[in-house]
From TrEMBL, chain A:
UniProt keyword terms in alphabetical order: Carboxypeptidase, Cell inner membrane, Cell membrane, Cell shape, Cell wall biogenesis/degradation, Hydrolase, Membrane, Peptidoglycan synthesis, Protease, Transmembrane, Transmembrane helix
Pathway: Cell wall biogenesis; peptidoglycan biosynthesis
Domain Penicillin-binding protein dimerisation: start-end pairs: 65-237
InterPro entries named in the record: Beta-lactam/transpept, Beta-lactam/transpept-like, PBP_dimer, PBP_dimer_sf, PCN-bd_Tpept, Penicillin-binding_protein_2
Name of the protein this chain belongs to: Peptidoglycan D,D-transpeptidase MrdA
UniProtKB/TrEMBL annotation, chain B:
Transmembrane spans: 37-56, 68-86, 92-111, 156-175, 202-219, 290-311, 323-350, 356-377
Coiled coil: none
Superkingdom of origin organism: Bacteria
Membrane topology: Multi-pass membrane protein
Compartments, record wording: Cell inner membrane; Membrane
Organism: Vreelandella boliviensis LC1
EC number: 2.4.99.28
Task performed by this protein: Peptidoglycan polymerase that is essential for cell wall elongation.
Name of this chain's protein: Peptidoglycan glycosyltransferase MrdB
Known catalytic reactions: [GlcNAc-(1->4)-Mur2Ac(oyl-L-Ala-gamma-D-Glu-L-Lys-D-Ala-D-Ala)](n)-di-trans,octa-cis-undecaprenyl diphosphate + beta-D-GlcNAc-(1->4)-Mur2Ac(oyl-L-Ala-gamma-D-Glu-L-Lys-D-Ala-D-Ala)-di-trans,octa-cis-undecaprenyl diphosphate = [GlcNAc-(1->4)-Mur2Ac(oyl-L-Ala-gamma-D-Glu-L-Lys-D-Ala-D-Ala)](n+1)-di-trans,octa-cis-undecaprenyl diphosphate + di-trans,octa-cis-undecaprenyl diphosphate + H(+)
């Protein structure tokens, strides 16, 4: 009984303590509730706009729809560049249980190089959101796809994704003219219109692919889609379709291109063929070629080094960037220059003792025939490729006239309408020499230029283009590669940079043509063996470009020189004489005299174009070449 | 003491028990030992929770039915528990506590691993059990039972004993590791000590000690732990990892605005940007689809439950009942605050579900068992008042 009041007293006190504490707890509860309310007001009212935008950006994704790149056809509709479906391997990190194990398995299965894994790790870190796939490797082979399919259950999060990739079915023979596309690099990225190129990974790097990049590419479209957090597209909210790139029809003829490639037979050289009346380039080949498809996906370092270090320079486009002394091939142009300037008439002659001497100079500028050709008129000078005639002519013209007249044929400048990366090569002049060497022009240098040596350099395209102008009797037509862009034909008359060449008497053209015909069909023509069995009238001119210059009175023996020091063989030609359909230039490096090698190739080209059904057999041409090589003679 | 009178007048309830020993006629609620107000509020809360769950589960009727079934089982448990008198809990508290500790040790030794932590104890084919859940009730009951025998306010010796009682299960839970449950067990038990009248001086001392411990703690942390703290302070620093949850949940809530995007219309929730959307982060679904209005209505509902619970606690007639009831209802509010604070980005992410709304059975059973004890204490008071 004594204990009870004591307990009751405690009870009262304990209750008081509890009630005070409970009241405090109520205050704390309401304070915390107020804190939460404040936070919610801040999020949902004050910051509502910001979070609204963020939630919308989460949900709505704008996906670019890259356009299909335009296809490229030759003049007969043969496909030269297509878009091949390829398969890339991507990986979604969040769906992979063990990344290291998965990567190790993939390396094992697909034999991936380490660089691919490193590149993947970099890409993986650059992702914008979870569940965004990162590219592991591109262009899987059928075998790789099959191996992946078998091991699919072991590879969650690894996905195969389709992507069209540029493919060149005849890469080796078309590589230089078509060019190729490659991955857009950082530098290009800066100058590109981001909207137009959204979703596009490739851009034309060289050749036609580069020149007509704008037309071929088209315009990217886009679609707004609603996605969930895993990036899966749930529905489309809006869409602008892409505008596919225009298909391109080229003036090139694949069979001509292939013939030229085979004729060159792996040697270093170039063949360019043009339709004189229209400027259409039928063939433009530089050998050796290379597989441009390697550059589309990205060439590996070893292969690239191989191509770069190859002494034959396969990546070098000789047709538009190769600089060659034109040699005797320019003699018809010089004769025309003499006619224009009134220095000669078709009937004026010289007497050739086998050399030429400048007044008050003991040095002898030699004809290739030591004992000389005797009396030589214009036609014969072309037919026998007499040097003395042209030393005289060049000296009489002077370098200034010579430079002006040759420039009218397009030498020393870019001639084509749509050839990417064309070189101007070099047509020397007084001004040029002063600018380049700070030296005056010496009369002896004019003589060298007169026979296509010295400083003068031409590209095979320039030589073909000049030949076409000559075949057109002076009418200048810009060479071009594109025939039709989409449905629009390229206009026949492009703005001309050069004036037509006018002769005092139009029949003089026939006299020059006649001289050129005699080169092939004449009794003493330098390329007379090429004319055997010719079914139409053809004009041409051989040439030799010295790689190794000879001292005074030194004699030349091709066999004694290392292969790479032998002369380049050149030939230019057009046919038929009365109505020219094709103009050709051929350059074969280190092949020796032009009359033997290059001329046969030129004729094979004209045969192929003019006698469509009797296309020449490459094997036969090779036999003739071998036979000819067996009894080399001078040009 | 002014607080005392203030409290009494606020409640409008006599502090002392009724003078008359003659009980008036018991209502049906009193006879089944349930509190109609609290029960009603809980039912409204659970109903609202199911509506939100339907949306949060990706419109899965199965999830809603499953959760409904668990609620029913938990409610039955609550009703059964409410029938026992508080003296039963007082008597069984030490045993429950002891068994709980033994099972926690067993879990740490042989427990099942789930979600990267040992939490479950399983007798295969019979029962799968999470002893730490039981501790949420056993620990405060044990502390209250101990303090019930002491003179209050507690002396230092009693406080040390309470510290040991609390410390053992908390440490055992923390090493599983389950920091969320460990936090709730410790706060449930600590609230008992605080309500019992832990001296303010001691509270202040502990607070200062805690603040002083921060710098050395930071110095001794592993890099990844520091990273976690930094990510909490600035979620944008790790947007794809730990920051992702908070960025997405605040985005969901913030984009809801005043009125919300409408039920089943929340893009963050329905398009799965929101992680854990039907469990710990379910409140973000409510915030997105029902806006500030929906959030405040839910918060108000919780406050009503807490108010009713506190009123029931303060009208309990003995120390044990008061302490246990107060602890149960305040722990309930801690659940709410920690979960909402975490989802809205003012507290770090710890795995605490939103009571009676988040999907999951275990926490509902524990919570409703607690409410069962609360109702028992409230409904049995006249019988004890003699």
């Amino acid at each position: 009984m004594l204990k009870r009041p004591n307990t009751l007293k405690n009870s009262e006190q304990e209750l008081r303590i509890f009630r005070v504490r409970a009241l405090l707890a109520v205050l704390v509860v309401f304070t915390l509730a107020g804190l939460l309310t404040g936070r919610l007001v801040y999020l949902q009212i004050v910051q509502h706009d910001m979070y609204s935008t963020r939630s919308e950006n989460n949900r709505v994704r704008v996906e670019p729809l890259p356009p299909n790149r335009g296809l490229i056809y030759d003049r007969n509709g043969v496909l030269l560049a297509e878009n091949r479906p390829t398969y890339n391997l991507t990986l979604v990190r969040e769906r992979v249980d063990n990344l290291d194990e998965t990567l190790a398995l993939l390396v094992d299965l697909l034999e991936l190089p380490d660089e691919e894994i490193e590149a993947f790790n970099v890409r993986s870190r650059q992702r914008q959101r979870p569940f965004q796939p990162a590219l592991l490797t591109s262009d899987l082979s059928e075998e790789q796809i099959a191996r992946l399919a078998v091991n699919r259950h072991r590879l969650p999060g690894v996905e195969i994704e389709a992507q069209p990739l540029r493919f060149y079915p005849d890469a080796e023979i078309m590589a230089h003219s078509l060019g190729y596309v490659g991955r857009i690099n950082a530098e290009e990225m800066e100058t590109l219109d981001a909207g137009r190129y959204a979703g596009t990974h490739f851009i034309g790097k060289t050749g036609i692919e580069r020149f007509y990049e704008e037309e071929l590419h088209g315009q990217a479209g886009l679609r707004k889609v609603e996605t969930n957090a895993r990036g899966r597209v749930l529905r489309e909210l809006g869409r602008t379709d892409p505008v596919p790139g225009a298909n391109l029809t080229l003036t090139l003829d694949k069979s001509m291109q292939m013939l030229a490639y085979e004729l060159l037979d792996g040697r270093r050289g170039s063949i360019v063929a043009i339709v004189p009346a229209t400027g259409e380039i039928l063939a433009m080949v530089s050998t050796p070629g290379f597989d441009s498809n390697q550059f589309v996906t990205g060439i590996d370092v070893a292969s690239y080094r191989g191509l770069q270090e190859d002494l034959d320079l396969p990546l070098f486009n000789r047709a538009i960037r190769g600089h060659y002394p034109p040699g005797s091939t320019i003699k018809p142009f010089l004769a025309l220059a003499g006619l224009v300037e009134g220095v000669i008439t078709p009937d004026s002659t010289i007497n050739d003792p086998g050399y030429y001497q400048l007044p008050n100079d003991s040095r002898r500028y030699r004809n290739w025939l030591r004992w000389g050709h005797g009396r030589v008129d214009m036609e014969r000078s072309i037919a026998v490729s007499n040097n003395t005639y042209y030393y005289t002519l060049a000296h009489d013209l002077g370098i200034d006239n010579l430079h002006e007249q040759m420039s009218n044929f397009g030498f020393g400048q870019r001639v084509a309408h749509d050839v990417q990366g064309e070189s101007t090569a070099l047509m020397p002049s007084r001004d040029w020499k002063r600018g380049r060497f700070n030296q005056p022009w010496y009369p002896g240098e004019t003589l060298s230029v007169g026979i296509g040596q010295g400083y003068w350099q031409v590209t095979p395209l320039q030589l073909a283009s000049a030949t076409a102008t000559l075949a057109n009797r002076g009418h200048w037509v810009k060479p071009r590669l594109a025939r039709q862009i989409g449905d629009t034909p390229v206009p026949r008359d492009l703005p001309n940079t050069l004036d037509d060449i006018q002769l005092a008497n139009d029949s003089w053209w026939d006299r020059v043509f006649s001289g050129m015909e005699k080169v092939i069909s004449g009794r003493e023509g330098t390329a007379r063996r090429t004319g055997v069995g010719l079914e139409y009238r053809m004009g041409g001119k051989s040439g030799t470009a010295q790689v190794f210059s000879l001292g005074q009175d030194q004699r030349y023996n091709a066999d004694e020189l290392a292969e790479r020091l032998r002369d380049h063989a050149l030939f230019m030609a057009f046919a038929p004489l009365e109505n020219p359909q094709i103009a050709v230039s051929v350059i074969v490096e280190n092949a020796g005299g032009g009359s033997t090698h290059a001329a046969h190739l030129a004729r094979a080209m004209t045969d192929a174009w003019l006698l469509k059904d009797k296309a020449p057999d490459v094997e036969e041409v090779r036999e003739v070449l071998e036979e000819d090589n067996a009894n080399v003679e001078g040009n | 003491m002014p607080w005392h009178y203030l409290a009494r007048s606020m409640r409008g309830h006599p502090v002392r028990p009724p003078e008359s020993g003659i009980a008036r006629r018991k209502s049906i609620w009193e006879r089944i030992h349930l509190d109609p107000w609290l029960l009603g509020l809980l039912l409204v809360l659970m109903g609202s929770g199911l509506i939100v769950l339907y949306s949060a589960s990706g419109q899965s009727l199965d999830a809603v039915i499953g959760q409904g079934m668990r609620f029913c089982i938990a409610l039955v448990g609550m009703v059964i528990i409410a029938q026992f008198s508080p003296t039963t809990f007082l008597r069984w508290a030490p045993l429950a506590y002891g068994v709980g500790v033994v099972m926690l040790v067993a879990v740490d030794v042989v427990g099942d691993v789930g979600m990267g932590a040992k939490r479950w104890l399983e007798i295969p084919g019979v029962i799968r059990f999470q002893p730490s859940e039981m501790m949420k009730l056993a620990a405060p009951l044990m502390v209250a039972a101990y303090l019930n025998r002491c003179e209050l306010p507690p002396r230092l010796r009693d406080i040390v004993v309470c510290g040991v009682i609390i410390g053992v299960p908390v440490v055992l839970t923390a090493i599983q590791p389950d920091l969320g449950t460990s936090l709730l067990v410790s706060s449930a038990a600590l609230i008992v000590v605080l309500l019992a009248g832990l001296s303010w001086r001691l509270i202040g001392f502990i607070a200062v000690l805690g603040a002083a411990a921060v710098p050395p703690l930071w110095m001794n942390m592993h890099n990844y732990q520091r990273q976690r703290v930094l990510t909490f302070l600035n979620p944008e620093s790790d947007p794809l990892g730990a920051g992702w949850n908070i960025i997405q949940s605040t985005t969901a809530i913030g984009s809801g605005g005043l009125w919300g995007k409408g039920w089943l219309q929340g893009t963050q929730s329905q398009l799965e940007f929101l992680p854990e959307r039907h469990t710990d982060f379910i409140i973000a679904v409510l915030g997105e689809e029902f806006g500030l209005v929906g959030m405040l209505v839910l918060l108000f509902l919780y406050l009503l439950i807490v108010s009713r619970g506190l009123w029931m606690a303060s009208s309990a007639q003995d120390t044990f009942g008061r302490l246990v009831a107060g602890s149960i209802i305040l722990t309930f509010f801690i659940y709410v605050f920690v979960n909402m604070g975490m989802v809205s980005g003012i507290l770090p992410v710890v795995g605490v579900p939103l009571p009676l709304v988040s999907y999951g059975g275990t926490s509902s059973v524990t919570l409703l068992a607690g409410f069962g004890i609360l109702m028992s204490i409230h409904a049995h008071r006249r019988l004890l008042s003699r």
